[in-house]
């Protein structure tokens, strides 16, 4: 075999190795893009109740937790984080609770659900937590300081979805279905700069 033929054989082998190495990445990107395209009815950002937070920018958020240490968003990078802003007296908040709890139970490995109660006393929220057997973090915003920081107007419930890289992906006002939570989670993972673990 001459030098030219040998050189071509080496280049062909390298091209094949490169193609095989890139194929899984391209297949994953196509799967992620098709996952987004397969949900034409999904709307991630509620135009009626915009948020004051910036989309696609890493967010820092620290809030007091009922009967636990403060919750800090930056300590949960690598997970999709759902903030569900609610009040115990809110009928739609109560209606979506089973969907939320079932959703979180199915994704404990890569998803965090944080409830944020607005304007109520700790004991009121403890009774609510006991009623629904909520094992997840409940943060407290009795003076509505945080709610004023993240929402332009009051509406319950509100859901905010952060990608694994800490950027805001979605915000929605009103009760949503299990399908919405699942779709938002999938999209948040597919569009994150840092992949979930």
Characterize the structure shown:
There is one protein chain. The chain has helices at residues 3-37, 91-106, 122-132, 145-150, 178-190; strands at 62-65, 68-72, 80-86, 111-118, 137-141, 158-162, 168-173. With 197 residues, the protein is α/β, with parallel strands linked by helices. The protein has 2 domains: 1-38; 62-190, 3-Layer(aba) Sandwich (Glutaredoxin). The protein has a 5-stranded mixed sheet with strand order 5-4-3-6-7. The longest helix is centred in the first third of the chain and has 35 residues, at 3-37. Mean pLDDT is 78; it is low at 9-37.
Range of helix content: 40-55%
Q: Unreliable runs, pLDDT <50, ≥5 residues?
A: 9-37
CATH class designation of the largest domain: Alpha Beta
Shape: globular
Overall pLDDT score = 78
Spatial separation of the terminal alpha carbons: 48 Å
Strand residue percentage: 15-25%
Overall SS class = alpha/beta
Instruction: Give the domain tally.
Output: 2
Keyword list:
single chain; 197 residues; alpha/beta; Glutaredoxin; 2 domains; five-stranded mixed sheet; two-stranded antiparallel sheet; 5 helices; globular
SSE layout:
Elements: H1 3-37, E1 62-65, E2 68-72, E3 80-86, H2 91-106, E4 111-118, H3 122-132, E5 137-141, H4 145-150, E6 158-162, E7 168-173, H5 178-190
Parallel strand pairs: 3-4, 4-5
Antiparallel strand pairs: 1-2, 3-6, 6-7
Concise structural overview:
The chain has helices spanning 3-37, 91-106, 122-132, 145-150, 178-190, and strands spanning 62-65, 68-72, 80-86, 111-118, 137-141, 158-162, 168-173. The chain is α/β, with parallel strands linked by helices and 197 residues long. It is globular, with a radius of gyration of 22 Å.
